[in-house]
């Protein structure tokens, strides 16, 4: 009896409704940064692979993910013969992703890191990954124990593939038609404080008139280009010193709550700096989690608030007369870091 009830109510109702709720939350926010890190890694790793790149790819990938969740939910709701298999496969995938998120958080910050943050499964409203793993794990076990019954099959015989395709089409249309994030008007902007003001003669082009809703910088393509030619870099405020295009500079993109950023600055950018460093903060962190700035001589800037910045920090760029000549974009790539720092 329990196994038949589990099939009728869990595989064919609870799991698809749970999945639909997550899809709707993602669709409302359309924020790829809220995806679980392993999923976001796949999305960013396939940037440009299908002829779409940057913010357009992030937007499209979010809509594809949501449409896929609508498809899985529709299959469980309308095709009783496959409901259990789809439920098990979907929940097993979710548990694997959550397990990876928890393992990474534990490796980075210990058990305290596991207890913080959102899983991203329901956008910004998502519960803690550990809580989500518990819920999905219980649903997975119940789905495995569930068993089809003749009564359950009778309930769904009026539906089937046509109904599944119809519901999927409705979900795909909703995903496609959901309003995209609009560009962000950067004019007017708050004037810099007097202490941060730069000479009017600076060659820096300044802020663009509008900012894209998403930025996913393709750093390898920046090599041998001018920093001021990259729209992403132009989003820093206030403008960099006039001397940014003269001699050697290090450009450090960091987050104030980033442990690896803090370690990099502590190891290489404390005390007197033989080479000037421009440290640009990415403003998507919780101020309460900010770490102390170890670089006293760094020139500090921040990117404008509003866009979603999809990148892993720290990122270190070496500038020669305004041109990017070397870079280190992975904190674990010590060879790239040493090459970037070398005279």
Please, could you describe this protein's structure?
The chain has 343 residues and is α/β, with parallel strands linked by helices. It folds into 2 domains: 2-177, no CATH class; 191-341, 3-Layer(aba) Sandwich (Glutaredoxin), CATH 3.40.30. It is 45% helix and 13% strand. It is built from 9 helices and 11 strands. The chain has helices spanning 2-29, 37-45, 54-78, 80-114, 129-145, 150-156, 161-177, 259-268, 334-341; strands at residues 121-124, 184-185, 210-211, 214-215, 236-237, 248-254, 277-281, 299-303, 308-309, 315-320, 323-328. The strands form 3 sheets. Strands 5-8-7-6-10-11 form a 6-stranded mixed β-sheet, with helices on one face. A two-stranded antiparallel sheet has the order 2-3. It has a two-stranded parallel ribbon with strand order 4-9.
Write the layout of secondary structure elements.
Layout: H1 2-29, H2 37-45, H3 54-78, H4 80-114, E1 121-124, H5 129-145, H6 150-156, H7 161-177, E2 184-185, E3 210-211, E4 214-215, E5 236-237, E6 248-254, H8 259-268, E7 277-281, E8 299-303, E9 308-309, E10 315-320, E11 323-328, H9 334-341
Parallel strand pairs: 4-9, 6-7, 7-8
Antiparallel strand pairs: 2-3, 5-8, 6-10, 10-11
Helix pairs in contact: 1-3, 1-4, 1-5, 3-4, 3-7, 4-5
Question: Quick recap of the structure?
Answer:
The chain folds into two domains: 2-177, no CATH class; 191-341, Glutaredoxin, CATH 3.40.30. 45% of the residues lie in helices and 13% in strands. The chain has helices spanning 2-29, 37-45, 54-78, 80-114, 129-145, 150-156, 161-177, 259-268, 334-341, and strands at 121-124, 184-185, 210-211, 214-215, 236-237, 248-254, 277-281, 299-303, 308-309, 315-320, 323-328.
């Amino acid at each position: 009896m329990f196994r038949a009830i589990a099939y009728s109510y869990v595989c064919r109702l609870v799991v698809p409704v749970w999945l639909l709720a997550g899809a709707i939350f993602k669709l409302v926010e359309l924020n790829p940064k809220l995806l679980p890190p392993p999923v976001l890694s796949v999305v960013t790793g396939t940037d440009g692979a299908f002829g779409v790149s940057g913010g357009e790819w992030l937007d499209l990938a979010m809509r594809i993910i949501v449409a896929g969740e609508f498809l899985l939910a529709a299959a469980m709701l309308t095709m009783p013969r496959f409901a259990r298999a789809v439920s098990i496969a979907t929940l097993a995938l979710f548990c694997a992703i959550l397990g990876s998120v928890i393992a990474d958080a534990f490796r980075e910050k210990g058990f305290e890191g596991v207890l913080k943050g959102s899983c991203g499964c329901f956008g910004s409203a998502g519960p803690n990954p550990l809580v989500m793993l518990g819920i999905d794990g219980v649903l997975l076990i119940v789905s495995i124990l569930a068993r089809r019954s003749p009564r359950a099959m009778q309930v769904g015989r009026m539906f089937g593939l046509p109904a599944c395709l119809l519901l999927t089409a409705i979900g795909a249309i909703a995903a496609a038609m959901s309003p995209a994030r609009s560009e962000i008007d950067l004019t007017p902007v708050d004037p810099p404080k007097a202490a941060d003001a730069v000479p009017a003669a600076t060659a820096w082009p300044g802020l663009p008139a509008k900012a894209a809703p998403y930025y996913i910088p393709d750093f390898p393509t920046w090599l041998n280009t001018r920093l001021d030619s990259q729209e992403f870099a132009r989003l820093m405020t206030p403008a960099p010193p006039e001397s940014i295009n003269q001699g050697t500079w290090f450009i450090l993109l960091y987050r104030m709550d980033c442990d690896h950023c803090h370690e990099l600055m502590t190891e290489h950018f404390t005390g007197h700096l033989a080479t000037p460093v421009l440290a640009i903060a990415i403003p998507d962190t919780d101020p309460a989690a900010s770490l102390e700035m170890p670089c006293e001589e760094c020139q500090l800037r921040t990117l404008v608030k509003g866009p979603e910045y999809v990148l892993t920090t720290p990122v270190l760029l070496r500038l020669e007369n305004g041109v990017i000549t070397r870079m280190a974009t992975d904190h674990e790539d010590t060879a790239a870091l040493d090459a970037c720092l070398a005279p």
